[in-house]
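Lay summary. Proteins are chains of building blocks that fold into shapes, and those shapes determine what they do. In this project we predict the shape from the chain. Here is one chain we studied, written as its sequence of building blocks.
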Amino acid sequence: MKKIFLKLGLGCLTAVAVSACNDDFLERYPLDRITNETFWNTENDLAVYNNSLYDLIRVEPNVPILQGHNNGFDSHFGSIWNQDELSDNLAPIEPRHTFFQQIRSGKYTVPANPDWFGYRGWNFVRAINVGLENYNRANVSQAVKDKYIGEARLFRGWFYADKVAKYGDVPWVERPLDINSEELFAARTPREEAMKKVLEDLDFATQKLPNSWGDGGAPGRVTRWVALLAKARICLFEGTFRKYHGGSDANMWLEEAAKASKEIMDKGPFRLYSTGNPQLDYNAYHRVFDLTGNPEVMYWRKYKVGVYTNHIQSYFSYTGGATKSLVEDYLCTDGLPISLSPLYKGDDKIEDVFVNRDPRLRQTVLHPEDTKLYNYHMGDGLPYPRLNGMAGGFTTTTGYHIIKHYNAADLIGKAFDTGESPAIIMRFAEVLLINAEANAELGTITQTDLDLTINKLRDRVGMPHLEIGKVPVDPRYTADGVSPLIQEIRRERRIELFMEGHRYQDLMRWKQGKKLTIQTMGMRWNDAAIARYPKAIVKSKVDPVSGKTYIDVYQGTDFAIPVFDEKKHYLWPIPLNTLAQNPAIKQNPGWE
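And here is the predicted shape, written in a compact code that computers can read:
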């Protein structure tokens, strides 16, 4: 920062002679603005500085950690809900979401500049490192300093973990840079070395952050519990990625995931939300404005008119709707997959799909009889589902409208861009799923582990328990190369965390990119459907597995025949302008 020096022509004035004549006394800092030299003094200074990190985090396309809905118009793509569009869970065709369609279909090309959620946000790292260079200057106890250092290091480790997941090697930087810094022209830090540093950041945060900031559980500062879940999530990703893609110490990462999640389970104040109603409890709290005091929600983002808003509900249809692949993954009420259960009624008409199925299906996808229950769409009185080409209401590409997050109250009587639907960023259900998967991948899982995790989730919706000695073998997944138990845990994760931003990264870490090559289909398309949905503009195709005809979402588009190159598509390409600025970065394999 700029300093002001006052030169006194005849030496030190008599009035200040007792202070001695020295340069320190003669230095004067600007009185009309905060400077780096005068700022770092109190706990409030540290809190205020870290508040600026939260402001950067709220720009989700740049810093996709603690992802909510973004602000204003950009919430149509920046929301955590839209991240499943990268995967086989959703079927978007909206031109504004071409980026999602390109990634999921293998038609993405090397961009000139960083794309959404990609190779951007590096100013966030600089801001963190500036803080880390200065926090210890404050005149407060080390314990107080460590809270804010832990907050910043959690953010840095989390940010880099996201970059490693997408790009592999990363340019690790842990000090503020200037235009002459050699790091600006250095090669990327190897993945395993970078992730070691990530783990150091996460460990520090889990040791130094407080269990509570005394804010009453408001969606404010991250706590030690949030840090533990972030660590568990990141360690699970890294452990499974190394197990299935190759890499050292896979088990160490899985053990860290298991330990971090178990600490939350054993010592944290969280539990699954339940009122004892399996037909409503799964999605009830996903469709309200205020999540304060919810025992399951560990971190959420609040939106309020006049303060911070979104319009995610207005563009709810941009997701295209749930896919046939997702809908078929819900178990029947006997705990068996549709390929094995005698209870499965089929899908000749949409109502049949919901019969004898996991209650989460009807709380995720709109049943035609539930339009009044959910006031869908704003109580317009039209019959649903509605397909592309049909006049009025919300339409869908697949026939499977999403109801899990739908809230008509955030639309009725509201002006554009005044949405207040909150974003659940972290919840206890994920903790249970991480613990079960990590233990299963380690080969140490017991029935007790299942009862404390997967079966807790099933209890909420009245589904049969998963038992180690009675794991169904779904023929649709025997080629995946994992045990039936791991497959069932993966299925549970897909169902429970649908449209919460996890599916694409799950497929990447499991080395299951081939699932993105399965053509995206919707509901059954037979003579009865053609008669029932007049003026619908859809294309159909015979499913090679069942021999039945279904809506073929991408037929006739650039994404009709998806591809997945095992040698390159598990990582994203480095933007061309980044390579031009620093050739030492080098392009990822297969994207040259």
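What the prediction tells us: Confidence is low (pLDDT under 50) at residues 1-29.
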